[in-house]
Amino acid sequence: MSRTRSPRDDRIGRVPRYATAPSRALTVLLACILAVMASSCRAPKPSGGGLARIRAAGVLKWGGDIQGGEPYVYPDPASPEKLIGFEVDLAEALARELGVRAELVQNDWSNLVPSLERGTFDVVMNGLEVTEARAGRVLFTRPYYVFAERLMARRGDDTIKADLASLEGRRVGTLANSLAFEMLRGRAETVLYEGVEEPYADLLSKRTDAVLLDDIIATRYGAPKEGLATVGDLRDGYYAIAVRPSDPDVKEALDEALEKIAKRGELRAILDKGRLWNDRQARLLTWSEADQAQMLGKPPPPPALGPQHVGLFLKGAGITLVVSALAMAIAIPLGLALSLLRVYGGGLSRRAAGAYIEIYRGTPVLLQLYLLYYGLAPVLKLDALTAAVIGLGMNYAAYEAEVYRAGMQAVPKAQMEAALSLGMTTGLALRRVIVPQAVRFAIPNVTNDFIALLKDSSLVSVITVVELTKQMTITAVDVRSWLGPGLACAALYFAMSYPLGVLARRLERKLDGERDREGEA
What we know:
Elements: H1 7-11, H2 20-41, H3 50-57, E1 59-64, E2 74-76, E3 79-84, H4 86-98, E4 101-106, H5 112-117, E5 123-124, H6 132-135, E6 139-140, E7 145-154, E8 171-175, H7 179-184, E9 189-193, H8 198-204, E10 210-214, H9 215-222, E11 228-239, E12 242-243, H10 248-263, H11 266-273, H12 289-296, H13 307-344, H14 347-362, H15 365-375, H16 384-410, H17 413-421, H18 426-456, H19 468-479, H20 483-520
Parallel strand pairs: 1-4, 1-5, 8-9, 8-10
Antiparallel strand pairs: 2-3, 5-12, 6-12, 7-10, 7-11
Helix pairs in contact: 4-10, 4-11, 13-14, 13-16, 13-18, 13-19, 13-20, 14-16, 15-16, 16-18, 17-18, 18-20, 19-20
C-alpha cells in the first residue's frame, strides 16, 4: 500500500528564504571575532628584547608541573591553595633580582619545552635536566642544582647492577623526555610515566624490574618503600633554567641573578630549607664559563623525520587498533546486557544497570584508568595493556548501553505484545524479535562510537602504554619539531577512522532506505 505524498514532504530538505538571515548574522559575528583576534595579535610589544618585556609586564612567568610534587613545587599541606617548594623559593629570589614578581604557569612536564617555544611562559624551571637534545633547542642558564641518576630495584634482586649493561632487555621505569630516558634508549625496555610516584609503585608490584630517576625523586618516593633498595648512582646531571633562543638577554640576566644569590649564600639557604644541599652542590658556588661549556657540550644536529620513525609510528598505530578493537569487543556485549537490564529487568537490576551507566558516563575515563591500574594494584595486578583494554571497554559499555536502549525503543511495542501472544517467553521474544532489530538500528551509532574510541585510546599513555599519540610526542622531541610528527600521526588516525566513517554513513543510508520502504508498504 503506497503512501500519498503530502505538502510536508515537499518542504523537507528545503531551506526557507528567511533562513539565510541568521547565516548572514553568524558570518558577520565570526568576522568581528576574527578581527578582534587579529588586532590583539598585532598589539605593540615592548622594545628591547625579552627582559624588557618581562619588566614591562612586572612578572616573570615560569613553567612547571605541580604533579612533580615535593620538593620542586607542590601545595602546602597546611594551606593547599598555596604553592611551596625549593623552585618556588628560587623563582621568587630570581624575580626579586629582576625587579618583578614570579608567577607559576602550570604545564605538563614532558611538554614544558614546546610550551616555552610557543610563548606560554618566559622560562622553564622545574627539574629540567640539561640534555644534548634540549641544549639544541633552548638556552640554558648556569645550573641551580646538581643531581645524580639513581638506579633502584626490588630488595634482594642481585641481577640489577649499578651499570647500564645489567639493564639490557629489562623493563626499567623512568620519565618521558628525561636524561634517564636518553640513557636507557637502545639498552632497556623503557616504561614511561608522567608522575614520580607511579614508577616505584609499579616496581614494587613487579610490573617493572628497575627505576632510573634523579636522586631527589628516588630519595623521596622510592627509598621509603620497604621492598625497594638503591642499587647505585650512574652519573651526575644538572638542573638549569631554559630560555628561548630569541631571549639571550633574559638568560644573561638570570645568570647574573643566580651568581649573586649563590655567592651571598641564598641559594644554599634555599636548598638547605628543602634538605637538598650536599657535597655536589659546592661546585655551584665556583661555576665558570668552562664549566658551562662542559655541561652543554656540543649538541648534535636533530635527526630528520625518516623511515626509522615510520616503523615506530606503525607500531603505535597497531597498538591503538588492538586496544580499541579489544575494548569495543568488551563494550558491545556488556552494553547490550546493560540495556536489556535497564529496559526489561526487575527493579533491582534496573537500578544497578542505571547506576553503572551514570557513574561511568559521569566520571572522566582518565580517572577510571588511574583507579583500575594504580588504585586496584594492591589487590588486582593488571598489566598496562590489559588495564587499558578493560578500562576503555567498561567505559564505552555505558555509552553503548544507551545506544542499544534507543534501538529497543525504536521497535514498536506491538511487536513484543504480538510475540508474547504467540506463546513466546519474554527471553525468546527479546532474542528473536526485539534485539535483532535493535542491533540493526544501533549499528551506525556503534560504528561512530568505535571511531571515537580510536581517538580516546590516546589516554592510555597515562598508564604507560605507548600508543600512536604517545609515540608522536616522543618522536617530536627527538626531531625537535611537532609539525612533521603531528601531521604523520593525524594521517594515520585519519587512515584508520575514515573507512569506518564511510561504513557508518552507508549503514545509515541503507537503514533509512529500509525504513522508507517499510513505511510505503
